[in-house]
């Protein structure tokens, strides 16, 4: 039995697209929401500074809050990216090891994601 490399390639691509089509829209929606909140906070700081409605101490407090919001957003996004990368890994090696198992009659187990 010949090993179908082209078919395997299509299966790998399909598995990857399935993961990305599920995860990327969710990440995009989350990102849009968070970035809007961060932008609104920056606008409030700028407007309050210009019109004098916030003093220096309040501005510094709001700036610290803005920094924390931004850091939390980036850290959360990085964590979501790691989860998505692991899902991609699992999908791809599942297809690869499944194809090898099918072609050989073996029962090989896929390796764990890097770092696991």
How does this structure look, described?
- The protein is mostly helical and 116 residues long.
- It has one domain.
- 83% of the residues lie in helices and 0% in strands.
- It contains two helices and no strands.
- It has helices at 5-51, 56-104.
- Helix 1 packs antiparallel against helix 2 (56-104).
- The chain is rod-shaped and about 80 Å long.
- The mean pLDDT is 95.
Summarize the structure.
The protein is mainly alpha-helical. It is built from two helices and no strands.
List keywords for this structure.
mainly alpha; 83% helix; rod-shaped; 2 helices; 116 residues
SSE topology:
Layout: H1 5-51, H2 56-104
Helix pairs in contact: 1-2
Mean pLDDT metric: 95
Structural class of the secondary elements?
Answer: mainly alpha
Q: What radius of gyration results from the CA coordinates?
A: 23 Å
Our count of helices gives 2
N-end to C-end Cα span: 35 Å
Q: Find the count of extended strands (DSSP E, 2+ residues).
A: 0
* Low-pLDDT residue spans: none
Proportion of residues in extended strands: under 5%
Helix-residue proportion: over 70%
Q: Note the run of SSEs as H and E.
A: HH
Tell the overall outline. Answer: rod-shaped
Count of folded domains: 1
Query: Can you summarize the main beta sheet?
Result: none
């Amino acid at each position: 039995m010949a090993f179908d490399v082209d078919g395997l390639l299509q299966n790998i691509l399909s598995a990857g697209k399935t993961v990305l089509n599920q995860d990327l829209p969710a990440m995009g929606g989350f990102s849009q929401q968070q970035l809007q909140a961060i932008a609104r906070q920056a606008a409030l700081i700028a407007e309050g500074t210009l019109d004098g409605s916030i003093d220096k101490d309040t501005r510094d407090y709001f700036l610290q809050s803005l920094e924390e919001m931004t850091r939390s957003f980036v850290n959360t996004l990085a964590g979501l990216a790691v989860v998505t990368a692991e899902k991609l890994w699992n999908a791809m090696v599942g297809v690869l090891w499944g194809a090898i198992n099918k072609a050989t009659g073996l029962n090989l187990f896929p390796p764990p994601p890097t770092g696991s």
